[in-house]
């Protein structure tokens, strides 16, 4: 999971959490693949996939002596993947560090920053931090994971998403140029596709996200990262942008399936 972006503000709740597919056609192009091939994925009774379990922790933090009240409280629930495959040792260490970071670094700072402000305003509320994930694709070689971070403080709510699409055969994370077939810039193509879809539905009954009027390709390019995609259960590439970027936070994650550009 990418390290979460720290944006502590009294008006905006930080968010974070993280996916996608590509193909074995790139194996011949990777100079790091020489030597002994990696072991095959674990075979399970219902088919080949890479087994995993959640590594979860929950609790609460209490901040005493802030403002005119005696204490403020943050309730947290953090869940990261624990992949049961020797080839995932490095990823698992990263996930464990993410869990530690959220619990020991992010949560205390989030509590202090927001409730310092609320103490001045005389507001007494519990804030919360929820970090979790879903595995959107797992074929025994490629795994796509969508991570979600949600925060609340008083009546404010925010969430953010990150993703990881990883090939255990090739041993690296995929980016847009791994999953989009084009002789041109795959990033520019992804931006154009998103902009076209937004223009199609903006202001209609199909505009379930309520896209802002000022959204254009420049704004989309400013927010779309090289890994802002995941694979769904059918192996279809889905581009996404986070809440607030191009529509109201309450609209949730904005998703844009790309059915015709999946690598074979």
């Amino acid at each position: 999971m990418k390290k979460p972006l720290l944006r502590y503000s009294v008006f905006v709740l930080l968010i974070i959490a993280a996916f996608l597919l590509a193909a074995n056609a790139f194996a011949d192009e990777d100079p790091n693949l020489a030597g002994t091939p990696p072991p095959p994925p674990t075979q399970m009774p219902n088919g080949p996939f890479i087994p995993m379990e959640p590594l979860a922790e929950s609790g609460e933090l209490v901040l005493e002596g802030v403002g005119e009240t005696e204490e403020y409280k943050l309730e947290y629930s953090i869940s990261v993947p624990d992949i049961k495959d020797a080839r995932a040792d490095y990823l698992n260490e990263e996930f464990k560090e993410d869990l530690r970071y959220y619990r020991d670094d992010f949560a205390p700072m989030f509590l202090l920053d927001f409730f310092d402000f609320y103490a001045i305003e005389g507001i007494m509320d519990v804030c919360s931090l929820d970090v979790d994930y879903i595995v959107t694709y797992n074929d025994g070689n490629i795994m796509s994971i969508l991570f979600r971070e949600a925060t609340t403080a008083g009546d404010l709510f925010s969430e953010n998403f990150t993703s990881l699409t990883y090939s255990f055969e090739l041993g690296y994370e995929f980016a847009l140029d791994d999953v989009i077939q084009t002789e041109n810039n795959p990033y520019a193509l992804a931006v154009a596709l998103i902009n076209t879809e937004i223009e199609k539905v903006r202001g209609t009954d199909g505009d379930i996200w309520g896209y802002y009027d000022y959204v254009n390709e420049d704004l989309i390019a400013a927010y779309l990262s090289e890994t802002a995609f995941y694979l769904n259960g059918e192996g279809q590439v889905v581009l996404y942008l986070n809440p607030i970027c191009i529509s109201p936070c309450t609209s949730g994650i904005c998703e844009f399936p790309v059915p015709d550009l999946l690598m074979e």
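The radius of gyration is 20 Å. Helices lie at 89-121, 176-179, 186-201, 217-223.
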